[in-house]
Design goal:
42% of the residues lie in helices and 16% in strands. The protein is α/β, with parallel strands linked by helices and 385 residues long.
């Protein structure tokens, strides 16, 4: 079979579009914070990750605009050679201070941050242990490192202990345990204290990807702070594309670790630097998150309210502990059908289909959604029962 033959046979998107049930690559005309426009229709956005409601905040947008006017639209090269700004270093210092880590390194995307730390630090002799729901970027980083990979059951200290114990006899190399702070499809918080305790018992390093916890939990300081010092991690990563209303990402660790990654993380060394506009936007959003901790609390309160009301309607929806609300569906067809019904009623949510996860709708709440927005979502779901 020729390489591209499989592309000709891949007709699922076309079939789903013809049925009006294709839930991906929606082209938005206007992306205002919580009320957007698609196909000429006003639509509530309950499928984004703009948790603090800052992606359209005048202060953030203004900072991005000013940076573009000052530094230009692009740095046209890697930070290693010609693309590093004092603005990047300012952001790194403030990130490290806010999240309570010794040092930080800014990457062009959160995906590249995970790719860089995994492939930069690990090698063929090492073993990486993943929660079964760890983000795809972490798995891809491990594959790039050529390390051995082991999975353990989601949020299970016992399963992690078994996996680490099985790798003990005659082991060679180091071991890394990889966790998410908040799991993006499940919406639950990592059992961090218990998992860190197991990792420490086995002398394993711990990496936490706090993409969905940073800016939200513990007045914005993230998952480790949520546990009030009961779980310290060796390495932390996050993205700016959620609560920090930009694009980009960062890795946190000891100064020696950050210095090593500056010269060994391929996704840093061989990629153009984060743009001035994106850097300034993330820095401004970080400062607002520090000054306005009510934003994370409000997003969480909205999620608790909405999840409770959807459960009262009879939907398979657990109590919310994060801004993410998964609503379990029977199968792909029901997922796509309910998604379309919500869209027809002016509500956008994410349709999640296998193999990404089991069939479900994924809702997410923000700090700027109002009570009437929540009521409209509940009414749309009620109409589809």
């Amino acid at each position: 079979m020729a390489l591209l033959d499989k592309c000709e046979k891949f007709n699922l998107p076309q079939v789903a579009q013809e049925l009006g049930l294709y839930p991906f690559y929606t082209a938005w005309r206007n992306m205002a914070a919580d009320v957007c426009e698609v196909d000429g229709k006003s639509t509530l956005m309950f499928g984004g990750n703009n948790y603090l409601g800052l992606a359209h905040d005048d202060r953030v947008v203004g900072a991005a605009s000013d940076a573009a006017l000052t530094y230009g639209s692009s740095l046209t090269g890697s930070r290693l050679l010609n693309g590093s700004l004092e603005l990047h270093e300012e952001l790194e210092r403030e990130l490290a201070d806010f999240f309570g880590m010794p040092a930080a390194l800014v990457f062009a995307t959160g995906y590249q941050a995970n790719l860089g730390v995994m492939s930069g630090l690990c090698g063929p002799d090492d073993v990486i242990f993943f929660d079964q729901y760890a983000h795809a970027s972490l798995l891809d980083g491990a594959r790039l490192s050529q390390s051995r990979m082991r999975m353990f059951r989601h949020n299970s200290p016992d399963s992690l202990h078994t996996a680490l114990s099985s790798a003990e006899p005659g082991r060679k190399g180091s071991r890394l345990v990889v966790l998410d702070g908040i799991y993006s499809m499940e919406g639950d918080i990592c059992a961090l204290p218990e998992l860190v305790e197991v990792a420490r018992h086995h002398q394993a390093t711990v990496l936490l990807d706090d993409a969905h916890g940073a800016g939200v939990l513990a007045d914005g300081r993230g998952t480790p702070a949520h546990f009030e010092g009961r779980a310290e991690v060796d390495l932390l990563t996050l993205t700016f594309s959620k609560a920090l209303a930009s694009i980009g990402g960062a890795v946190f660790g000891a100064p020696s670790t950050i210095s090593f990654l500056r010269h060994h993380a391929r996704s840093m060394v061989f990629s153009a630097a984060l743009s001035p506009a994106a850097t300034a936007a993330a820095l401004t959003a970080l400062r607002i998150a520090r000054q306005e901790p009510w934003r994370g609390r409000t997003a969480l309160r909205n999620a608790r309210t909405l999840a409770g009301e959807l459960a009262a309607l009879g939907y398979a929806c657990a109590p919310a502990t994060t801004p993410i609300i998964p609503v379990t569906m029977k199968d792909k067809v029901q997922t796509a059908t309910v998604w379309r019904g919500l869209m027809n009623r002016g509500v956008y949510v994410n349709a999640v289909l296998p193999p990404a996860a089991s069939a479900r709708l994924r809702l997410s709440c923000t700090a700027t959604q109002r009570r009437e927005h929540l009521d409209e979502v509940v009414a749309a779901f009620a109409a589809l029962r």
